């Protein structure tokens, strides 16, 4: 007895079984997304920020030098390089050396996190040099470019993979492999294996700004979460300029700047700064203050002083170094470092939300 043939387990590939077998047409890969179907590259990432501490914890953190410059993210995509500031502005045209080096890191897509810096003749990052390279106190725009380099300390995205969910030590390992043996304007911010207390003391003796620590087992989280901390040799923060004390015998025609910080949603007067001004920076600063849309008779902050002050719109943000805070929340021994640009999205100091106030 002949066996009854079994029905096919699946349908034939072609309706006409005698027809020629053909494969489906393959679509061309989108070069802007080289790692599909993996993670799409974020258009922008809010940076992780370091929380100020007076003394470093003993364990659990990786330590490196604190660089004094502009925080940037470099986005490397197919045929496109972007250098984004904290405010989300593209400064690629202002940092051509960084862009040129980023092109050599491809073709993989990536997001690098770091600081754009200029260095003095002793190898220390210098915010004033960076400002000067971008124009007088950073206020002139146009075709001005800077030869700044990027000190790179994190890798947030690489070759189609979003790395923000990885622990820091794993991201760091990938970053070191990526930048190993590379030269140019993108450099690795080296980890330093030392006791953090001794490291901070040594950094201060060398005239550095301080040190930064990152939890080795932490994922990348935007904002001040405590995963990243900073310990400073000299305090340096951003404050709003709310007025100036005029003087006919000083560069720029002012004797001092009146400064304010936030307490909640309100501004509070934190004292004045009258040192640290150079001729060119003073003239540029006065020009910037004169361009503000209006001046006011009444101060924008509670003020009980006796100085003759020209009060201005609280728009300009100054970088200020100082030694400590007084008991009534005034800056002790402040010194002017330069103006922070709007595109840099400098965070104005908040009283009560930072240690040491």
Unreliable residue runs: 9-17
Q: What share of residues are in beta strands? A: 25-35%
Number of structural units classed as domains: 2
CATH architecture annotation name of the largest domain: 2-Layer Sandwich
Query: How would you characterize the largest beta sheet?
Result: 7 strands, antiparallel
Please provide the count of β strands. Answer: 19
Q: Could you name the CATH topology of the largest domain?
A: D-amino Acid Aminotransferase, Chain A, domain 1
- CA-based shape: globular
Spatial extent as radius of gyration: 27 Å
Mean pLDDT: 84
Number of continuous helical runs: 5
Describe the overall structure:
This protein has 5 helices and 19 strands. It is an alpha+beta fold and 357 residues long. It has 2 domains: 48-232, D-amino Acid Aminotransferase, Chain A, domain 1, CATH 3.30.470.30; 235-344, Nucleic acid-binding proteins (OB fold (Dihydrolipoamide Acetyltransferase, E2P)), CATH 2.40.50.140. Strands 11, 12, 13, 14, 15, 16 and 19 form a 7-stranded antiparallel beta sheet that branches. Strands 3, 4, 5, 6, 7 and 8 form a 6-stranded mixed beta sheet that branches. A 4-stranded mixed beta sheet has the order 1-10-9-2. Strand 6 (149-158) and strand 7 form a beta hairpin. The model is unreliable at 9-17 (pLDDT under 50).
């Amino acid at each position: 007895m002949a066996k009854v043939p079994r029905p096919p387990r699946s349908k034939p590939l072609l309706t006409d079984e005698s027809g020629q077998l053909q494969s489906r047409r393959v679509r061309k890969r989108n070069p802007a997304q080289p790692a599909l179907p993996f993670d799409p590259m974020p258009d922008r990432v809010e940076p992780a920020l370091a929380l100020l501490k007076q003394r470093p914890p003993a364990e659990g953190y990786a330590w490196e030098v604190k660089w004094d410059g502009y925080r940037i993210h470099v986005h490397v995509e197919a045929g496109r390089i972007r250098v984004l500031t904290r405010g989300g502005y593209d400064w690629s045209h202002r940092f051509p050396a960084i862009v040129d080096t980023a092109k050599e890191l491809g073709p993989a897509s990536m997001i690098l996190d770091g600081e754009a810096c200029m260095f003095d003749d002793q190898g220390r990052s210098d915010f004033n040099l960076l400002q000067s390279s971008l124009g007088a106190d950073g206020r002139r725009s146009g075709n001005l470019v800077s030869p700044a380099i990027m000190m790179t300390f994190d890798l947030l995205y690489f070759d189609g993979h979003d790395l923000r969910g990885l622990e820091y030590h794993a991201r760091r390992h990938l970053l070191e492999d990526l930048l190993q043996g590379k030269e140019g304007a993108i450099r690795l911010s080296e980890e330093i294996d030392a006791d953090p207390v001794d490291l901070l003391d040594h950094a201060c003796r060398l005239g550095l700004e301080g040190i930064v620590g990152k939890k080795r087992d932490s994922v990348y989280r935007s904002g001040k979460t405590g995963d990243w901390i900073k310990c400073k040799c000299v305090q340096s923060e951003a404050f709003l300029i709310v007025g100036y004390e005029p003087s006919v015998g000083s560069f720029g025609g002012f004797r001092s700047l009146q400064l304010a910080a936030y307490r909640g949603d309100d501004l509070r007067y934190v004292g004045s700064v009258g040192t640290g001004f150079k001729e060119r920076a003073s003239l540029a600063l006065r020009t910037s203050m004169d361009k503000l849309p209006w001046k006011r008779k009444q101060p924008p902050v509670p003020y009980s002083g006796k100085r003759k002050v020209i009060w201005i719109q609280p728009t300009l943000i100054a970088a200020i170094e100082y030694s400590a805070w007084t008991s009534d929340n005034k800056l002790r021994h402040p010194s002017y470092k330069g103006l922070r640009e709007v595109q840099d999205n400098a965070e104005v100091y908040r009283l009560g939300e930072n240690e040491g106030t």
